[in-house]
Design brief:
The complex is a heterodimer of chains A (313) and B (235). Chain A is built from 12 helices and 2 strands. Chain A has 313 residues and is mainly alpha-helical. In chain A, helix 2 packs antiparallel against helix 3 and helix 2 crosses helix 9. Classes of the chains: A mainly alpha (313), B alpha/beta (235). The structure holds adenosine-5'-triphosphate and magnesium ion (MG).
């Protein structure tokens, strides 16, 4: 009886941790998903933009201390959120001057060749960001250490880490705002139209290249926010992106490639699986658990759990 | 309104259009007919900018269209309804129409055009919230035309609106196109395989074969021409 009760509490604890972690994973996946959905480009550098978000948040909060006046609770949150627009602008410029050369309407006709150059380019960006990060930030693992990151709220027998809880809330807010932006606003609809059918989008007057730029900026910016939030919950170094790339790709594929909202659920699922697996598996095997569940889901739902339902067979 | 001079277009090394010249006057209904692979769709794509020509000139209301970015051309009042039901499959019928009204003119006249489009194609009104990808082929075609109209165009380019539709539906679509032309004085450039129907309604027409204009003329000249009769009208 006693052990059963302890297991039950452990279970709830893992469930809660999975949800909280999954929220930020979901946001990252949405970032990767919007880039794939609109541009049909697999961004291999995506994890490294998340790393940029982590360092930006770190320097704003702890390093240069620009946000210390906001206090140890609000500061890290504002730092994470601010990483978004900064990385957005960076992504926008990167697309404008580099990525646009190998993507977009002009290379659609050369589909197959286009994909190779895109893969090589995003891998190259990934290497530059990682090694640039190493030069600029050093290899020492760091994290944003504040009371927020150390303390927990208690919900009965369950402990909710404050930084993770706040991160979850912010991630959900960002995902919802993006959802309504894509669903309701004129610009959001244009983005979806460009994703759905770029040629027809051009015929109705959508600037497809600009839509791609917006999608890329939004995608990396959102992921940087997720990174900034995670920076308060764990240590990181310039190669951290690689650990998360697996999570992000699995989440996006789970959610159904091209489904932007699905990517959030995919990320959430990954977070849950990762945390729940610690109940039965050693901690080191949590990524293995992700892959097993990933393969199972792909086996049973090849289009992802939230795949496209509008495609007629 | 639209003047095309010695247009040459090639895909890789393959010449798709050679020295094509064409003219559309304001308020006219001009048909372009020709066999498969003649280059009709290529002509339209060059006008709306998704294919770049090797040489030649396209003037739209006196303006050099080739200097205008593809996405901007719709803003000038050119609506291209592409061949083969190119709707936004993952968006609803209403969202598709809203995307049609993405242009400045379309947005300004949305309130008056939407009822007109829904009256023209009542089936779209019934299916407002349905995802366009789940519509039947004929419904998708109507939606594509409706989307073109929603941009409040001055020049409506229709690429094979009858493709894959049942004969009764083809008649209905042609009837609608006629109606739009008459009631709204819209300039129409139409590409059709159904030569009889297309020439029936047009003011003037062009016959395109393997990338060249082999014949041009007014409606009565074309339908009376023995070559057209033999090759396209089955007489
Ligand atoms: N993207 C492309 N790449 C290579 N060749 C192309 C491309 N698009 C069209 N072509 C070729 O150009 C020629 C003209 O094609 P186009 O689509 O303009 O014909 P069409 O007159 O519209 O024919 P249809 O009546 O069958 O629609 C064809 O020989 C076609 O194979
Ligand atoms: Mg064609």
């Amino acid at each position: 009886m006693e052990t059963l009760q302890w297991f039950f509490i452990d279970f709830l604890q893992a469930l809660a941790a999975g949800l909280l972690v999954g929220g930020t994973y979901g946001l990252m996946c949405v970032g990767l998903g919007i880039i794939f959905g609109v541009m049909r480009v697999v961004n291999f550098a995506h994890g490294d933009f998340m790393m940029l978000g982590m360092y930006l948040a770190f320097y704003m909060v702890t390093g240069f201390g620009m946000l210390t006046f906001l206090g140890p609770y609000v500061g890290p949150i504002v730092g994470a959120v601010l990483a978004g627009p900064i990385v957005f602008v960076f992504g926008w410029l990167l697309h404008r001057y580099l990525i646009a050369r190998v993507t977009g309407a002009r290379v659609v006709s050369a589909e197959a060749e286009g994909h190779y150059t895109q893969i090589i380019l995003t891998l190259g960006i990934s290497l530059i960001l990682q090694n640039g990060g190493l030069i600029l930030f050093g290899s020492l693992p760091i994290s944003i250490q504040t009371p927020l990151s150390r303390e927990s709220w208690e919900l009965g027998p369950i402990f909710l880490n404050q930084a993770r809880s706040v991160g979850f809330v912010i991630a959900v807010i960002f995902a919802l705002v993006l959802y309504f932006f894509l669903g309701r606003s004129r610009l959001g609809k244009a983005l979806r139209a460009a994703a759905d059918n770029p040629v027809a989008a051009a015929y109705v007057g959508v600037d497809v290249d600009r839509s791609h730029r917006l999608a890329f900026g939004l995608g990396v910016g959102i992921t940087a926010v997720a990174g900034g939030l995670i920076a308060s919950t764990q240590t990181f170094q310039p190669y951290i992106g690689f650990d998360f790339v697996i999570v992000m790709f699995a989440g996006v594929v789970l959610g159904g490639l091209g489904s932007i909202l699905g990517a959030f659920w995919g990320g959430l699922t990954i977070g849950l699986v990762q945390q729940m697996s610690t109940l039965v598996l050693p901690y080191q095997l949590q990524n293995t658990a992700i892959f097993v569940v990933f393969l199972l889901i792909i086996f049973f739902w090849p289009r992802g759990m939230f795949g496209r339902s509008w495609e007629r067979t | 309104m639209l003047k095309i001079r010695s247009l040459n277009v090639a895909y890789g090394g393959l010449q798709a259009l050679s020295e094509v010249s064409l003219e559309v006057e304001q308020g006219q209904f001009v048909a372009v007919v020709g066999p498969n692979g003649a280059g009709k769709s290529t002509l339209f794509k060059t006008i709306s900018g998704t294919v770049a020509p090797l040489s030649g000139e396209i003037l739209y209301k006196g303006r050099d269209l080739l200097a205008v970015a593809p996405g901007e051309r719709a803003q000038l009042g050119i609506a291209h309804v592409p061949e083969g039901r190119q709707v936004f499959a993952s968006m609803t019928v209403m969202e598709n129409l809203e995307m049609g009204a993405y242009t400045r003119n379309g947005r300004a006249r949305w309130g008056e055009l939407l009822p007109m489009i829904l009256a023209l194609f009542p089936v779209l009104a019934e299916r407002r919230e349905q995802l366009a990808g789940t519509l039947s082929g004929g419904e998708q075609q109507m939606l594509a035309i409706g989307r073109g109209l929603a941009s409040a165009p001055e020049l409506l380019m229709l690429d094979e609106p009858s493709m894959g539709l049942a004969p009764a539906l083809v008649d209905a679509i042609f009837e609608r196109i006629h109606q739009i032309h008459r009631q709204h004085g819209l300039t129409i450039l139409l590409v059709e395989q159904r030569v009889a129907e297309a020439l029936e309604s047009c003011d003037s027409g062009y016959v395109l074969e393997t990338g060249r204009v082999v014949m041009r003329g007014r409606h009565d000249e074309l339908v009376a021409d023995p070559r057209v009769k033999r090759a396209y009208l089955g007489m």
